[in-house]
UniProtKB/TrEMBL annotation:
This is Uncharacterized protein. It comes from Rhizopus delemar (strain RA 99-880 / ATCC MYA-4621 / FGSC 9543 / NRRL 43880). Pfam families: HTH_76 (PF25871), KPWE_dom (PF17733). Residues 2-64 form the PEX14-like helix-turn-helix domain. Residues 80-123 form the Peroxisomal membrane protein PEX14-like KPWE domain. Residues 104-126 are annotated as: Disordered.
Length: 126
């Protein structure tokens, strides 16, 4: 795993020391909070773990880490108009990208109750 991948997988949300420091920074209402947050994370990670330069990280993220547009297009199902979807439903054609859920209930045998039933309020002897 590269340094950049390790940085991206680090759990900043559950790091109490980082959270206490970033809270004061974000209270100042800076213009670009996302960039400020990224720089703060890089500073913190560089100080306590492995040094990372902001420019190098941005180059890595832009070149190697971003998914290719062609693969992104292949994963998305085609978009249909409302009328096209209505026509597919009327004709019984399967709509791409819709998960088919079988119309059955669990085939397993239900378990037997092992607890004693609670008495009703009028059944309780006082």
């Amino acid at each position: 795993m590269s340094t950049f991948e390790a940085f991206e997988k680090y759990d900043f949300d559950n790091d109490a020391q980082f959270q206490s420091g970033i809270a004061s920074l974000l209270n100042n209402k800076q213009e670009n909070e996302d960039q400020l947050l990224l720089k703060a994370k890089l500073f913190y990670y560089s100080k306590f773990f492995t040094p990372i330069q902001y420019d190098e990280y941005i180059k890595w993220k832009d070149s190697e880490h971003e998914p290719e547009p062609t693969s992104e297009r292949e994963e998305k199902p085609p978009r249909f108009t409302f009328q096209e979807i209505v026509d597919m439903i009327e004709k019984g054609i399967e709509i791409p990208g819709i998960k088919q859920i079988p119309n059955i209930i669990n085939d397993g045998v239900p378990s037997e109750s092992k607890m004693k039933t609670r008495p009703k309020p009028w059944e309780i002897k006082k």
